[in-house]
Amino acid sequence: MADILIVEDEFSINELIRRNLCLTGHRCTQAFDGPTAVSLLESGSFDLIVLDIMLPGLDGYQVFERAGGTPAIFLTAKSELSDKLKGLAMGADDYLTKPFQMLELAARVETVLRRTKKEETDFTLGSMRCDFHRHQVFLEGTVIECTPKEYELLRVLIRNRNIALSREKLLDMVWGYDFEGGTRTVDVHIQRLRHKLHLEDYIKTVYKLGYRLEVPE
What we know:
single chain, 217 residues, alpha/beta, Rossmann fold, Arc Repressor Mutant, subunit A, 2 domains, five-stranded parallel β-sheet, four-stranded antiparallel β-sheet, 8 helices, elongated
């Protein structure tokens, strides 16, 4: 779990980002203009900034200059190479051009947090606990043997908790785009995780789509 500052002047986009990042377990604070963002950065501590470039008052570059080294992912409608290079040259950790998918933003957030060592070290749900550093899964304190693919599927579900993931997306994220097997592989591994880790009440089937790990907020 990380403390994330979302700086985006379009309310609908800001709120969509907040909802999705909160669903995946992060704590989010919102700002809709540059001066407010700077004030929040001066008065609080954040693990990451999701930062739009075009902002009222101060632009994203000016906000970032006052961020005191806080990791940042820039968001912008601009796609010119010069804009990307400017942000990265200033020390931004990543750059995402609008429009973007929330899954892509969530993945980039986790990558930056992992790189800056702010990612979750473990996760508990019911009687199950996953230790990400040791790559081990426990049920009522006892280590449960999981295959590498079972563990990776569980990790993906946890990182994207409360988000519906299609079978095709899970297949790509866990087995890779060049995997020649079908989506039935996902169904089989989901059933194993449900039974092995007592997650029948948490791994939900999303009709005609795939699965979602449902975690109470």
